[in-house]
Each structure stands twice: as C-alpha cells, then as structure tokens.
Design a protein that fits this description.
There is one protein chain. This protein is an alpha/beta fold. The chain has a single domain, classed as NAD(P)-binding Rossmann-like Domain (Rossmann fold), CATH 3.40.50.720. Helix content is about 35%, strand content about 15%. It has seven helices and seven strands; from the N terminus they run E-H-E-H-E-H-E-H-E-H-E-H-H-E. Strand 5, helix 5 and strand 6 form a beta-alpha-beta unit. The radius of gyration is 19 Å and the shape is globular.
Length: about 290
C-alpha cells in the first residue's frame, strides 16, 4: 500500500546543512575504507563537512581517486590509496601513506564490504570468504592498526563501523553478509571495552535502506517507492544522513558514546505485525532471493 498522503514523513536537512560546525574535525585526518563510492563516500564527505582531511582507500585506485576528487571539492585535503583490507601488510602501508600525505590518522571509518544475493546452499567457499573476510578481517585489521598508532602516540581517537540492520534477523539471500555484519557489531563492543582507557571510542551503525548510485536497493519494478511503502518512517534513508550520523558519533559532541550499535533504518526493523504480506521463500521468488534482480 502506498504511503497515505496525510502521513507525516520527516525529511533531513539538505546536504549543505550538516548538524555540526564546519571546523569540528579541523586538524584531524580520517581514513575511510571503501570511501570512493556509495555509503563510504557519504561517510567521507560528512567528515569533510566537519573540516577533516580525508584518506580514501579502496581496492580500485580509480574509484578511490574519483571519490577523493569529489571530497576535495568541499575544501579539504584528500589522498587516494589502493589497499585490500584483507591483508595486514597492505593495511599498514595504507596508514603509513595516509599519514605521510595528511598527518596522523585520528579517525577511522570502516565501510569496505561486499555483498550479493545467493541462497545459503549455493554459496561457494570463495564467495563466503570474499564477503566475510572484507567485513570481519578488514574491520579488525584496520581497527587494530589504528589503535596501535593512537596508543603509541598517547592520544585517543574514534572509529565508526558500517554494519546492517539485519544482524539480528538475517536477510534472504544474505547468509554471508549477515554473518559478517553480526561479527562486526560484536567486535565493535569488544574493541570499545579494550580501548576505552586509551580514549579510543568505537561505535557502529546498523544501517537500513539508503539507495545510492552503486546500491541494488530500489532496482526492482516500482523503484524506491516499493521500499518506502514497507518502512514506518514512510521513506528510505538519504545517503547524506547516514554519512552525518557516522561522522557525528566521532565528534566531541558525543564523547561519551562508545560500544554502541545504532540502528538507522526508519523503523523498518520494527514493522513486524499480524498484517504482513504473505511470506515467499527466497528460492521461490520470481525476482531472486532479494526480491529483485
């Protein structure tokens, strides 16, 4: 059913009106994994709106450079780096390069990830490893590299992880990603405990649907309207409000926030009721396990 016209649908401010001062990250450097496109780019741009210098890392240097150019247009220094976060030597080298170019990394956004719809019994070992190692190993390796450097300097810092709202329920065709994102959320809590005494805060966002140019959300017939009709807030998320919340958790405004997994999904995870559409098993869906192709 379409969202009725009399429903109030709250909208965020436009991208040019971030919810924090333009200099709140002045003099700091953030490293964003997978920051050249999509949700990682939104995170990177949100940090830039607060004045942070931004190191963009990704497996594709072309995408990282393209993202860095868009971020630089906001008036901050940027640097693009090719790095596969599954490998500790590449992660260490990426931090070295970022710090040579932009100064000590005091903020970290773990966004790098991979996902694609596939039934659990059809997931190959390579496919399983491709998704889980980027999210789990990548988050761990980047976070520990970051923490060792901050502890050695005797300075604190902040980490934000991009998780997913289906970590508590799973999602059709997503056994690999659900497992990886759940591990990432648990890791968030553990690392926050380990590093609190060093002034290093660690949080995560369990993100819902934020359609963007590289996402699959909304590609079925009817586009994003189909998703919006399923969400209590009456709409999917705007990608810049995800970026803002990510950056906000790392500001001094939320200095007491650590070890938290914040759900940002417009209430989609709360919509369970007796009045639900008929359930169709993923294998029987005409448009694939995610409901679209």
């Amino acid at each position: 059913m379409p969202v009725p016209s009399h429903h109030i649908v709250p909208l965020p401010p436009p991208f040019g009106a971030p919810p924090y001062p333009a200099d709140i990250f002045a003099g700091q450097t953030v490293l964003v994994t997978g920051g050249g496109t999509g949700m990682g780019l939104a995170m990177a741009m949100a940090f830039a709106q607060g004045g942070a210098n931004v190191a963009v890392i990704g497996r594709s240097i072309d995408k990282a450079e393209a993202g860095a150019a868009r971020i630089a247009a906001l008036g901050v220094r940027t640097h693009a780096i090719s790095c596969d976060v599954r490998w500790p030597d590449q992660v260490a080298a990426a931090f070295d390069e970022a710090e040579r170019a932009l100064g000590p990394v005091s903020l970290l956004a773990n966004n790098a990830g991979a996902n694609f719809p596939v039934l659990a019994e059809d997931i190959s070992v390579n496919a399983w490893n491709a998704v889980t190692r980027i999210a789990i190993d990548g988050t761990f390796l980047c976070s520990t590299e970051f923490a060792r450097r901050r502890i050695a300097r005797g300075q604190g810092g902040a980490i934000i992880n991009n998780s997913a709202q289906y970590i508590w329920t799973g999602f059709p065709g997503d056994a690999h990603s659900a497992a990886a994102k759940t591990a990432q959320a648990t890791m968030t809590k553990k690392l926050a405990r380990d590093w609190a005494a060093f002034g290093i805060r660690v949080n995560a966002i369990a993100a819902g649907f934020f359609p963007h140019e590289t996402s699959t959300a909304g590609r079925r017939e009817g586009g994003t309207e189909v998703l919006q009709n399923m969400i209590p807030a009456g709409r999917t998320g705007s990608i810049h409000e995800f970026g803002w919340l990510s950056a906000m958790t790392c500001t001094p405004l939320l200095a007491g926030l650590t070890g938290q997994v914040i759900v940002q999904d417009g209430g989609e995870s709360l919509r369970r009721s007796l009045m639900m559409p008929d359930y169709v098993p993923p294998r029987e869906r005409a448009e694939g396990p995610w409901g679209w192709r």
